[in-house]
Prior knowledge:
Structural class: alpha/beta
Radius of gyration: 18 Å
Oligomer: single chain
Number of strands: 9
CATH architecture of the domain at 5-120 and 185-224: 3-Layer(aba) Sandwich
Bound molecules: zinc ion
Shape: globular
CATH class of the domain at 5-120 and 185-224: Alpha Beta
Order of helices and strands: EHHHEHEHEHEEEEEH
Strand order of the largest sheet: 2-1-3-4-9-8-7-5-6
Helix content: 10-25%
Amino acid sequence: MMEQVRVTVWNENVHDRSDDKVKEIYPEGLHGAIAQALRADEKQRFAVVTATLDQPEQGLPDDLLARTDVLFWWGHCAHNQVEDQLVERIYNRVMDGMGLVVLHSGHYSKIFRKLMGTGCRSRWRESDDRERLFVVEPGHPLASGLPEYFELPGEETYGERFNIPTPDVLALISWFSGGEVCRSGCGWHRGDGKVFYFRPGHETYPTYYNPHVCQVLRNAAAWTAPSGGPKPVYGKSAALENR
Ligand code: ZN
């Protein structure tokens, strides 16, 4: 069997323990549902572990981060509790080739804003809007196995402008029944690594059980995984040719 991509699903795990509605939808936490979507991969491409903010070293000690090929990130109300020193360590791993998949309200996490270099804010509203996600780059690996469009019957609304740098690949765009649109599946190269942002996943909706959403999560893990390319050498170098 091909070597598995080592995925760590990190969740701040706050609403999941404090809000009865969220507990009912995600009894194993959001991280549990996200991990399950990855483990359900029919080719078994991913070896998945979960980590949460309340654990020692905020869930991501050096040795775990060092053996993580792709890190999934769900955060919302505890962004500021994440230590700058951990943000720096994640940033360095991305520069070194680790993939990072930032979900939903993670757009305002310290690590995503640091990697993007912009404000990363959008309009938002919680009004049970229907969300329709269109695949706009059907030939891209991020679109693998998806229909032309799919719908989520209820979600939190995010609307443009979403203050991100122009994505290197824009795979999905969302429309909401309230009239907004939002870039909802965006990929970037950062250093030797790749970053993917996926918009849906508000904690009070069963979004991470939707089969198309689960497919996007698997596509994101596969696309952001290290490519096995050459390790760049920087600094003063001898000539490659004898002149
Ligand atoms: Zn939300």
